[in-house]
């Protein structure tokens, strides 16, 4: 009886978690930013209050430049209309953030076959897990997926991919540990062309953006892919961990310099109370956020929705 009750309780908890996730991927994020700004407005707005407002924006990872820009905006609005209701000020801030983020990115249509997606990023940012989530997404759309295990640096990564390939019904091309990652990608693309694969997902080893030699390796993988398919990779997605804060900007700028990025997957938003980094990246680098990771399982990946994001932040 007790076991039955516990089972029932677990199911209710799981259902609750699921509902929370589908309600908004950003449920956990930033809710206190809006509350704290409302609290500031409940008192007198003086220079100290503006300073505090700037600090609140900055702590939400919006970056120094944008935090200042937002405070200037509020200052000029209140100068023109000192009695402006708080909710109108907040809506003006939301509109400013929305204009930076732009409309939701159009879903990328798979026009080339195979459509090749290379996944890059620093160690542990969530590359392999995000790749698995993408494999699950494309498999759900009845596309044939092949994974290239081009992280030949970390032996365990092949095991990790074997598990995911099996779970998602994807094919896997792998090689010996420490073999050339470009050679694996070359073989994967050859196999994909021969076997009528729709989507190729290339996993790569984690690398620090400051290690130039390793960054050149990414450019090499790209060149070798083009020997098989001249316009591959059709997408290069940088996986960024939302919890690292402003360092994500440095990562994005450095990776973009070595291999042009077509988009960003921002992971671990389920564990972040911030997320303003999304706007800071758009503001400074104009690289679209395509997907957000909100957990560790295969279906915890969602297309980025700027409107839902801004509403959750404020
Ligand atoms: N909570 C949460 N955890 C995540 C998310 N994405 C990945 N992880 C976890 O982050 C850890 C690292 O994920 P990996 O996918 O192995 O990261 P990686 O970038 O491939 O790592 P390396 O290949 O070693 O560079 C794992 O424990 C994942 O389960 C996410 O969106 N939310
Ligand atoms: Mg990995």
* Largest sheet: spatial strand order: 3-2-4-1-5-6-7-8
Structural class, please?
alpha/beta
- For the record, the CATH architecture of one domain stands as 3-Layer(aba) Sandwich
Helical content stands at 40-55%
Description:
This protein has 314 residues and is an alpha/beta fold. It has a domain at 115-313: P-loop containing nucleotide triphosphate hydrolases (Rossmann fold, 3-Layer(aba) Sandwich). It has twelve helices and eight strands. Strands 3-2-4-1-5-6-7-8 form an eight-stranded mixed sheet, sandwiched between helices. The longest helix has 22 residues, at 2-23. The model has no long low-confidence stretch (mean pLDDT 88). Residues 121, 123-129, 151, 154, 157, 206, 267-268, 270-271, 293-296, 300 line the site of guanosine-5'-triphosphate (GTP).
Write the layout of secondary structure elements.
Blueprint: H1 2-23, H2 31-41, H3 47-59, H4 64-80, H5 86-101, E1 115-120, H6 127-140, E2 145-150, H7 155-168, E3 171-173, H8 181-194, E4 199-204, H9 212-228, E5 235-241, H10 247-258, E6 263-267, H11 277-285, E7 289-293, E8 301-303, H12 306-313
Helix pairs in contact: 2-3, 3-4, 4-5, 5-12, 6-7, 8-9, 10-11
Bound molecules: guanosine-5'-triphosphate (GTP) and magnesium ion.
Residues 127-128, 151, 157, 203 line the site of magnesium ion.
